[in-house]
Amino acid sequence: MNIQNSKLSLPTIESLTAENTLNLPNTEWNYQVSDTTGNMSMINNDQHIYIGANGCIYKLDAETGSLLETNNLPAPHNDNVMMAISENGKSLYAGTAGYVIGIDTDNFGQSMWHKRIEKSNKNVSLVCHGDRVYAACHGYAYLLDATTGNNISTNKLKGAGFHDCCLALSEDGDTLYVGTDGYVYRIATNHFSKQTWRKTVNSSSDIVSLLLKNEILYAACHNHAYKLNANTGDELSHLNISDAHSKPLSLAITPDGKRLFIGVSGDVISVQTDTFSTIDWRTSLTSEQEAVSFLVDGDIVNTGCIGYLLQLDIKTGQIIFKRNFPGIGKHAVAMTKNEAASHLYFASGGYVIAMNPIQLLNAGWDFILAEKLIPMNKQLRALYDAQKLPHQLAGVELGCPQVTTADTHNQQQLTFSISVKGTIKKLFTIHGSITASIDLNQVKAELINQSDNEHTLQINFADQVISDIDLSQLDVKFLEKPIDIEQQHNHITELLNQAIGQLGSIEFPLNIALPVSSEQSKVGLAYVYNRAHKEDSFVALMIGDDDTEPKSPLSVNNIPQASACEVSIIISNLTIMKYIEKSLYQVLEQQELFVGSHFMSLDTHVYPALVSNNETSKESEYACGAAVKIEKGQLNSQFSPNGQLVTHLNLRYKEIIIKVSHTYHITLKIGFSEQNGELHLSFDNSYDSCSGGTTCSYIKDAVKKALNEFHDLFSDGFNITVPAIEVQEVQSPGYIQISGTFKGA
After folding, report:
1. Between the CA of residue 252 and those of 220, 271, 293, 616, 717, what are the distances in Å?
2. Highest taxon of the source (predicted)?
3. Does 552 share its domain with 586?
4. What is the per-residue pLDDT across 445-480, written as a single tens digit (0 to 9) for each?
5. In this structure, is residue 459 part of a structural domain?
């Protein structure tokens, strides 16, 4: 008898009551506010999130996602909703279908006022400042009283057609900029009916996206982006953009104003604002030519496109995290971040999703070892052949378990297949293959230190580690009367749990020099499915100290995608710095340059010092006149924008008799690359001016020679062998990613 699709699934109370939520692992909460497929807008304000969609505004609790209130905006329609919020968060303003609406956030269900500024159902863009609301629609700009909604003044935008508008307002509220139909307008808000200037940025009648930063106005339309003097409208620089099909373009900028991002046709373009006419990098998010939204956060830029959340390295454009949310479809994305709730919010397809801010590849861990499934299964085969995995249990023959590529977002679920043949409790015989899932939360992993380059990963399983089984590839023959599918599941699950329970501890050798201590460490396991490149799915070992709090799920990019690399090591910045410090000291010790426990000394006995006695005018010669040392324990590092690890340390020198120390500040710029299958560190040294000094020529010669020897020591760099791994690729900064293949594989 062949059992087909014999998984047992019953609806839970939670699934019956959670009609407005999706099952999305590794998120804080999600909620469906609307069934819209149109654009959504979103504003956060401390404890609340406001969502504009489908002609309504929804007020949600920022921490829990609970829907608190809904404001059904005037006139039935399904149009986009634009929003702005007052500085104190007490008033929310909405623009939609030709209307501007004022809402008291403490009395959210009722509008304070609504004003129709356009008879047609056009989108309304708006911003606010103090007691004024500025709106634009259908070729006009409006100045409204924020308390009453009364129209104070109107500006007919000369030459503008009937397309959507984009607004930018100066921080002091004195100047409004409007972008529409290929034009940019500047309006002094105290003379609102007049235009200070109008700038043509495109001949086509497209919306012009605007961003104002540090007296510079950035404008983007169709195939062009401009850097304008915000006061005069003069063009400071221009950028040509190829393949700009989506409308409108989107803009974002780093807090320091040094890097601008342009979203265009499913791509992200980055330019450095001081070299605006040259593209720094361009990264494709999707082959579909759709709009891109941005949220810049520290060293990363979060991007949203057709229902996907992607995270890019801000300096290189490398995609370091990508995720979709099954159930929301492929729609436009809005994003915001709430500092009070420490959440990133993602809105698309009528859903709002809250999650912890996405981190870099290391995801909060100090060290990650990621291994593709093919080498992982080779290790399982070696354990099976060495009789360290069971071959038989309770009359049932067991084959070698193999980890399978399972399509799941749950990184705590590992699926494997195993061949079985035999009789179960004299009830039925089985022959074929079983697919089972292990709950990695029920697996205890411990790291045991054997030597500097040898560790053992010890794995212990709980009694009930199997979370699900699939019998669809199993032939079952009943010896007596048939039993139902649920009983078959129970018997076979019991057998597998017994088999796993008899394993005791499984030990995997790790021939790797770990840059973290195995003592007092936290160890985790994860399975990461790569939807784009299934063959790149992997199992990961994560190590951190006892205080490690992982911030996010692991990224599929822990192993470079579509490459020959089968294993990667990810090391966090702090761990790298400690590791480099240790490696530097080891190199110096090999050169016999350390003296004592605090300093290293270079040729201290070479230069005699002549010391004069001011009273007798006699000179005395001292054979050990110069002590030139580098302070141990004063090394500190940080990553530079070009991916180098910049390390600072102090060279101390003194006359032995006078015993006054002076300091040279040495800067090492350390680059990371692959060389001959090893991790190569290259050094670029520079020496700053010293603090203090000496008049003694012998001391000066000693310092000069010490600096030259230090330079010579590191001029060629040095290699760090990664035992068991043939290094093929090295990536930095933000982390060190060392990727390659297993030696002898």
Report:
1. 11, 11, 9, 74, 39
2. Bacteria
3. no
4. 887 777 665 677 787 776 677 878 888 888 988 888
5. yes
